[in-house]
Amino acid sequence: MDTLYRPGGAVDVRATLRPLQRGSGDPAFQVVGSDTWLALRTPAGGASVLVRRAGSDTIAVSAWGDGAAWAVTHAPDLLGRGDDWSELDVSAHAFLAEARHRQPGLRLLRTNTVVAMLVPAIMEQKVTSRQAWRAWRYLLRRFGDPAPGPVPVEMFVPPAPEQWARIPSWEWHKAGIEPGRSATVMRAVKVAPALERTLALGRGGTVVSQRLQSVPGIGQWTAAETAQRAHGDPDAPSVGDYHVPALVGWALTGGPVDDDGMLELLEPWRGHRERVVRLIGGSGFRKPAFGPRMTIQDHRWH
């Protein structure tokens, strides 16, 4: 199934879809040349999706599998439809003004799939990205469905809620996911229909965050990481992140800050705080590489 999307403005496909990638070896996300391939779990089933440029103002989307029609219908949301940057004014801050000038096609995506975004966010709680991405790869290859269609490499559709629920405890252990996080996944997939209904509340916000955090084990960080992707929330910075506050602090003031300091710096752009964080992240700016690093703990062998 195919469609052509004409967004009526600049869209950087790679930058917009990047938050869906869980490491370079993600079995559900692959970039081959100028093509971006996704293996998605949709409400209608699994789908492989190919996104590519078809002209200066046109994006071609092709999809295969049971969820193909759903994926094509919602492809414009995935590419930032409805994400309005017109009220974000960063002209008074030289760094942000330049970052925005260099990234005119950056958009916030909306997947319209809550649990599919929530489960990997739970896996990323309080561990390094390397650990979480390794677990993600293992579990998708072990319990995901082979991606349909002419995918360029072996890819896997993430499990549906009922499939996550059937994964035995020892497989979570092999993946490096300790009982606390796996139990949170189990609680989340058990109430999957209620979590999906938060999409009707719009592009995130306080009520969405509260609904997500009503599941024991899901806190502010996990709710924000989920709402950024599932709902397209433009105002949900990742409070509690190991790296984001320092990155924002160094970019905006030349020094590190904590969560409270980050929120204070972002306050002038309330309503657009995640957009500002994404501008910083996509600008190429890197904070100085010194200071403590999170210790990598491997629980798989004990």
From TrEMBL:
This protein's record includes keyword DNA damage: yes
Superkingdom field: Bacteria
Keywords in alphabetical order: DNA damage, DNA repair
Gene3D superfamilies the record matches: Hypothetical protein, domain 2
SUPFAM superfamilies: DNA-glycosylase (SSF48150)
PANTHER family: DNA GLYCOSYLASE, DNA-3-METHYLADENINE GLYCOSYLASE
Name of the featured protein: 3-methyladenine DNA glycosylase
Species this protein is from: Curtobacterium oceanosedimentum
